[in-house]
């Protein structure tokens, strides 16, 4: 069985690549040791799914036309997801694994990641009510997921009686956040919702801390994970919160067993585990269960049973449930503070 694994391996989001590939490969090896998928060996073929890479639709379309591709598993941005779904057109299953803005209805696309209602809403509520974050500034990339998430977050703040002071967007790889940071200094919010990813999130947080803003303004991100945290640097992570369905420091039995398998396969110097990478592991196992299921209709009467470290439940793209956690950065590590 030939499966395209789409992960960014270069560019601004290339930091996600090594750990995502490792997690997906681990899942494939587990499945193959158990007999594969319907008796067929599952083989992963890695494609660079960085936003800058524009030839993926043509590559995938040609492989599908030739009958050389059975499925796609993707861990990348929503902008890439749109291009990929236009190329697959429901001809092969396309499992999309990371957090996203929700509402995916394209034929043959199976989205299993966190959505704003599940992930962002309870985190905003906690920071508003428990940490006193009443005045907010939003900063994100000028693309699909940040804009949709910020619309959702703005409505959520209004319902909580909190105030949105500014909603700002930047182009990817803009190089400097001086203007945005000047405005944040002037507005003096209690918190910033940060919807930047990859190297841009790293650069923003370094500049944010260098101005001394971390001492008095909290930051919340749905997409900063352990790789980015390491790159930001321990001196720049004070007051940084993240919410996600997975953190490497989770102590439940499923994660401890997963980490033992992961490090047993790749060693103690393996790529850093994180929510985005781990979603690729769940995605490969989800694909195997999906292909083995009698029907693939979205409106299932029962959740699709598959091996999920997160305890993820999927009955359709509009009916995904999983635990979500809030964590606060402590130097180079995320310490989970609560289940949301």
What's the short version?
It is built from 10 helices and 14 strands. By secondary structure, the protein is an alpha/beta fold. It folds into 2 domains: 186 residues, 3-Layer(aba) Sandwich (Rossmann fold); 140 residues, Response regulator (Rossmann fold, 3-Layer(aba) Sandwich).
Can you describe this structure?
The protein is globular and about 60 Å long. It is 37% helix and 20% strand. The longest helix is centred in the last third of the chain and has 18 residues. The chain has 2 domains: 186 residues, 3-Layer(aba) Sandwich (Rossmann fold); 140 residues, Rossmann fold. It is built from 10 helices and 14 strands. The protein has a 7-stranded mixed sheet, with helices on both faces. Strands 2-1-3-4-5 form a 5-stranded parallel sheet, with helices on both faces. Pfam families: Peripla_BP_6 (PF13458). InterPro entries: Leu-bd, Peripla_BP_I. This is Leucine-binding protein domain-containing protein. Keywords: Signal.
Descriptive labels:
Rossmann fold, 340 residues, Peripla_BP_I, 14 strands, 37% helix, globular, Leu-bd, alpha/beta
Enumerate how many helices there are, as a single number.
Answer: 10
CATH topology of the largest domain, by name, is Rossmann fold
CATH superfamily of the largest domain: Response regulator
Strand content: 15-25%
> Uncertain regions: pLDDT < 50 for 5+ in a row?
none
> Which class best fits the helix and strand makeup?
alpha/beta
Overall pLDDT confidence: 93
Estimate nothing, just give the exact number of structural domains.
2
Main sheet summary:
7 strands, mixed
Order of helices and strands: EHEHEHEEHEHEHEHEHEHHEEEE
Q: Which strand order spans the largest sheet, edge to edge or round the barrel?
A: 7-6-8-9-10-13-14
Cα shape: globular
Number of E strands: 14
First-residue to last-residue Cα separation: 38 Å
* Radius of gyration of CA atoms, rounded to a whole number: 19 Å
What's the CATH class of the largest domain, please? Answer: Alpha Beta
Which CATH-level-2 architecture of the largest domain? Answer: 3-Layer(aba) Sandwich
């Amino acid at each position: 069985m030939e499966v395209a694994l789409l992960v960014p391996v270069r560019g601004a989001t290339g930091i996600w690549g090594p750990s995502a590939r490792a997690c997906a490969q681990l899942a494939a090896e587990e499945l193959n040791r158990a007999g594969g998928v319907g008796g067929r060996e599952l083989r992963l073929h890695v494609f660079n799914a960085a936003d800058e890479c524009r030839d993926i639709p043509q590559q995938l379309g040609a492989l599908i036309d030739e009958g050389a591709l059975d499925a796609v598993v993707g861990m990348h941005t929503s902008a890439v997801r749109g291009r990929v779904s236009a190329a697959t057109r429901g001809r092969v299953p396309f499992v999309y694994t990371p957090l996203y803005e929700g509402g995916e209805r394209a034929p043959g696309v199976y989205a299993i990641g966190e959505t704003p209602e599940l992930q962002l809403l309870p985190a905003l509520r906690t920071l508003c009510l428990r940490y006193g974050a009443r005045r907010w500034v939003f900063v994100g990339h000028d693309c699909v997921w940040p804009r949709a998430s910020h619309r959702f977050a703005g409505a959520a703040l209004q319902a909580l009686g909190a105030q949105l002071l500014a909603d700002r967007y930047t182009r990817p790889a803009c190089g400097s956040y001086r203007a945005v940071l000047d405005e944040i200094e002037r507005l003096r919010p209690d918190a910033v919702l940060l919807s930047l990813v990859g190297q841009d999130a790293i650069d923003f947080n370094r500049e944010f801390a260098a101005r001394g803003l971390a001492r008095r303004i909290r930051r919340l991100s749905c997409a900063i994970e352990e790789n980015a945290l390491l790159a930001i640097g321990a001196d720049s992570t004070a007051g940084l919160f993240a919410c996600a369905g997975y953190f490497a420091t989770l102590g439940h039995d499923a994660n401890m067993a997963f980490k033992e398998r992961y490090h047993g396969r790749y060693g103690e110097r393996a790529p850093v585990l994180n929510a985005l990478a781990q979603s690729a592991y769940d995605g490969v196992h989800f694909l195997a269960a999906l292909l083995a299921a009698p029907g693939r209709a979205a409106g299932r009467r029962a959740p699709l049973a598959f091996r999920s470290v997160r305890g993820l439940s999927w009955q359709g793209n509009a009916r995904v449930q999983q635990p979500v956690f809030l964590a606060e950065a402590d130097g180079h590590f995320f310490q989970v503070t609560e289940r949301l």
